[in-house]
Specification:
Layout (H helix, E strand, L loop, with lengths): L2 H9 L8 H17 L2 H4 L2 E7 L2 E6 L2 H20 L3
Antiparallel strand pairs: 1-2
Length: 84
């Protein structure tokens, strides 16, 4: 693909520009997640996706996932307070 064609694709609605709002949302969610999570859990988890109004969190192991699950009501409340 020629560089001119590549640039046109990336700038088109079906190109990278269509992904930009989703990427920006993930960056914002990760920033807020860093503020909300205890440091010990933050080192072993991260937000990996956001789809259909659900935040998808990756945890390194089941113990971390269980601890995060216990914090879910508080996380939902805190994200909601920030308009998310």
């Amino acid at each position: 693909m020629h560089s001119k064609n590549l640039r046109a694709y990336l700038d088109s609605a079906t190109g990278i520009s269509a992904l930009l709002p989703h990427a920006e949302r993930l960056i914002e969610l990760r920033r807020i997640y860093k503020e909300l999570m205890p440091q010990r859990l933050l080192r072993s988890s991260t937000i990996v996706n956001y789809k259909q109004e659900n935040v998808v969190i990756f945890a390194e192991n089941n113990a971390i996932a269980a601890k995060i699950k216990l914090l879910t009501p508080r996380l939902i409340s805190d994200f909601s307070k920030r308009g998310l």
